[in-house]
Amino acid sequence: MPIDAAKAVAAEPRTGEIAWNHKDVQLYHLGLGAGIPATDPDELRYTLESRLHVLPSFATVAGAGSPGVISGLSMPGVDVDLARVLHGGQTVRLHRPIPAEGTATATGRIAAVYDKGKAAILVMRTEVADVEGPLWTNDAQIFVRGEGGWGGDRGPSTRLEAPTGPPDRTVERPIREDQALLYRLSGDWNPLHADPEFAKLAGFERPILHGLCTYGMTLKAVVDTLLGGDVARVRSYTTRFAGVVFPGETLRIRMWRRAGGVRVAVSAVERDDAPVLADTVVDHT
Q: Cis link prior to 163 (omega < 30° from 0)?
């Protein structure tokens, strides 16, 4: 069996130093579509270094996303075909606001391996801390097709009951044709998001947008519309990637207020509201 669950979970964590500065933060925000209108004071918080705050989803790309998913797939006990790998979900937990510039230590490990029968799920955890203490924890849920069925723990269900009633807010966010090309400059160089020939080999008619770009765009929409633009209010943010997005499409983002949080559903307008992000929750103060 390519995945040895016990060996993977018991493996020594991998630790490395990461660094970022205001240019990395600004580039990430621009990759999410920030800066429109360019002189809007609310947008300048994402684009102008003298006013800069950091969207919490920046945690997924800080230090160019290192150590990342590919690093985790080479951990002891893991030997899988990348063609069978899908990014199934993402959670970021904030311990305090992310500074616009910093250096930190990132420690990555496989926190759990679940047996879903026809697939395995790897939970790849990255904990980041600087000299002042913990900053954030990233959990990436990696779905590996064809690697289940060994009788292991199925793990907790991540499916949530659908929100009831009309959403409190609905916004639409257009995706530029070049958005994936800009977003990939933050560290995800997978040619699936840029090379038409590679995309066809992967089974797509054309390059698709990064799931984590949609993830960041959605959080920005929630912060800007329901949290008064205050990124420091976000405590955690989790989602399940339910479908693809193509550059040039439009995201429809529906939001429901809940005590201490916001439930979110995201769909692609041009494809009859095909689901994009599901089981999405932003916990906040």
A: no
Q: Which of 245, 226, 242, 243 is nearest to 283 (CA)?
A: 226
What the block records as the tokens of 256 is 């429901």
pLDDT band at 157 (very low <50, low <70, confident <90, very high): confident
> 134, 97 in Cβ contact below 8 A?
no
pLDDT in tens, 39-48: 999 999 999 9
Query: Within 10 Å of residue 118's Cβ, how many Cβ atoms?
Result: 10
Which residue is catalytic, options 115, 139, 188, 224? 188
Query: What single string gives the DSSP state of each residue in 222-246?
Result: HHHHHSTT-GGGEEEEEEEE-S---
Active site residue 188: yes
Q: What is the pLDDT of residue 68?
A: 64
- Kindly tell me if the per-residue pLDDT of 67 is higher than 70: no
Contact between 179 and 212 (Cβ < 8 Å): no
In the Cβ-directed half-sphere of 30, how many Cα atoms lie within 13 Å? 16
Q: Is 4 a catalytic residue?
A: no
Catalytic hit among 29, 115, 139, 193:
193
Q: Give tens-digit pLDDT for 237-254.
A: 999 999 999 999 999 999
